[in-house]
Specification:
Layout (H helix, E strand, L loop, with lengths): L2 H22 L3 H50 L4 H14 L7 H10 L5 H7 L12 E4 L2 E4 L4 H25 L1
Antiparallel strand pairs: 1-2
Length: 176
């Protein structure tokens, strides 16, 4: 049995004992002591549950960052993939100096690139979920921002993308 479950069972037993003692007419001082002990146990349990939830939350974020790290390496090699087009559209708008980038602006440009399922793909890039594309963006209403924890990964992605674009340009200059 987990520590939290044990503490819950102890708390439940102590509450039942308190209720029983109240029914038996136990003196107020003893009832007060029991109630104070239960309150301390409840606070302890609350802290342990909160710590457990924060730990899970931190693990989820780390897992998501690792997923994105893997995916960005593939996306930079596949610029015609829907996720790449969406991210590259955002980065191009940012590079042009656009201060406020909206989901509508990204959609408008991405649709011109031939994406026909923008909403579902973009939504998956804004959420943490087991089967998503990877959380890349945060939305503030309609305003799009890069998700803070992955900005360094996107910076690496941008550098690799620029390097590959530069190589492509050099190659085509040699051919012509």
């Amino acid at each position: 049995m987990l520590e939290v479950e044990k503490e819950y069972e102890l708390l439940n037993t102590n509450l039942n004992n308190l209720v029983f003692d109240i029914g038996q007419g136990v003196d107020r001082k003893n009832l007060h002591n029991q109630a104070m002990r239960i309150i301390m146990q409840l606070n302890s349990l609350k802290q342990k549950v909160a710590f457990s939830e924060n730990k899970k939350s931190d693990e989820t974020i780390v897992d998501e960052i690792n997923k994105i790290k893997r995916k960005l390496k593939r996306w930079v090699q596949r610029p015609n993939q829907i996720n790449s087009i969406i991210l590259n559209t955002y980065l191009d708008l940012e590079k042009k100096g656009l201060k406020i980038i909206t989901d509508d602006k990204i959609k408008e440009i991405a649709l011109k690139s031939g994406i026909n399922k923008f909403e579902s793909n973009f939504a998956q890039m804004c959420n943490i979920a087991p089967k998503n594309h990877g959380k890349i963006f945060d939305l503030d209403g309609k305003i799009v921002h890069l998700w803070e924890p992955i900005i360094p990964l996107v910076t690496e992605y941008k550098e690799e993308r620029e390097r590959l674009l530069s190589l492509t340009k050099k190659y085509f200059r040699k051919i012509n």
